[in-house]
Amino acid sequence: MKLFKKCYLYFTVFASGAAVLIIEILGTRVIAPFFGSTIFVWTSLITITLGALALGYFAGGRVADRKPNYAVFYLIIFCAGFFTAVIMKIDQPILIATENFGLKFGPLISSLLLFALPLFLLGMVSPFAIRLRANLLDKVGRASGDIFTFSTAGSLAGALLAGFFLVPLLSISKLFLITAAFLAFLSILGFVIHRSSKTAFFVLAIIVFVSLSLIFLKIPKYNYDDKFTLQTILQKQSFYGDLKVVEIGGFRCLAVNGSYQSCVHLGLERPTFTFIAETKRLIEERKAKSMLLLGMGTGNVLHSLPKSLEIDIVEIDSEIVAIAKEYFDFSEEKYNSLTIDDARHYLLKNDKKYDLVLLDTFLGNLPPIHIFTKESFELLKNALNEKGLLLVNLEGKFGAEDKQLKSLIKTARAVFPGVVLTVTEPERYTSVLLHLSLDKNYKFQSGGKFTEVIQDYKDGILLTDNKNPLEIISVPKLALFREEMKKIAGLKIFFAD
């Protein structure tokens, strides 16, 4: 029995370590849809996790010295489970309340309010377990090493379990509840295994906490006042973000991490958006025979293209392809090939040349930073025929303050001799198409709704694999994009389930 109790203690430490990483990874899926999938989200979660654990280690050692018994130990774990369950009940009001702190500090404050308490309690577990195991001074080093080995191994298992299996299978709210329930069960079972005659108070405490937990879980989730009639048709998690299919104002749209990626009008046979019409016009004008599409989305652009055009498609997320087939009338049988792969990884392996390459890759509302570097543009250049054209689909408010666009142009000019910028409405939030050609004399022939504009790019940043602050310089554009999204769809689009 003594060996069993020892093994269960180690298992408790292992499971608590796993819970820490699961909460941290799930936390990004709560914060990212609301604040965008930027470096600030991950930095905030890592900062709060490490800070809460550090305080937990500090407090756990002192509490263990004063009350070195298993009842207190397992009560701490039970409380950690309870406050983990609370997260998905309070996430929306806290995210709304912290929005005023901006896209840099909003994720940090919301992470602190949502995740610090359960992570702090879980941080108390390891030093407490060391105190329970180290009854002899000459065994302290060994006990510490054993405990931290199991705790770290648990964190490793939790990271792999959450990232590779759980997140794509279940909703975020269910995963938080499963984690909370597991911690509660772990603590109650441990309390029973290590029961003693001096634990009447803690038995009562457990009963009270269980009762409060059941009552709390029955309370309806907070509903914010939202005047928009946004209907969510589907919501699921993929390896790459929070995916939603929504309907609003006669449109059906795919949103990734709170950002619209593609929309179709429910009353029309095919979409007629300016970017799609311009792509079709350029293909016909250039008499293109082959095309590489990097970033498929729902496949809207493909419906209007000539049937004789040979099209290779690369899409990183297989879940998006499944959604496109079920909700947006996409059929891969009509096209030359469809590859599930990262665009840059595909370009590394590809030796085929194309008349036109369309780069339309976004992770939520930000371009993936590894795609927009000088080295990546070199790979894109190699995918073009001698007279080929690379189109980069962007969006934003064209102007002198657009550091992101300036940097993208400067980076493109370091590789392509011919660079032309076209926009639809220069004074408003607009569609942007960047034309990149191997021909230094490339000229844009107007004929659609896009017009050529000149953008001073001298104070832009040359983006490379070694130096790439694209996420940081994109913050103003991301904030503008959020305001546009709020006008169209309200706040509901930003929340993960």
The figure for the number of domains is 2
Please write the CATH class name of the largest domain. Alpha Beta
Helix % is 40-55%
Q: What integer is the average pLDDT? A: 85
Radius of gyration: 27 Å
Unreliable residue runs: none
CATH-assigned fold name of the largest domain: Rossmann fold
Q: Going by CATH, what is the homologous superfamily of the largest domain?
A: Vaccinia Virus protein VP39
Structural class: alpha/beta
Taking the sheet with the most strands, its summary is:
8 strands, mixed
Q: How many strands in all? A: 12
Tally of DSSP helical segments: 16
Order of helices and strands: HHHHHHHHEEEEHEHEHEHEHEHEEEHH
Give the strand order, joined by hyphens, for the main sheet: 7-6-5-8-9-11-10-12
* Percentage of residues in DSSP E strands: 15-25%
Oligomeric state as shown: single chain
* Terminal CA distance: 43 Å
- Broad shape: elongated
CATH architecture of the largest domain: 3-Layer(aba) Sandwich
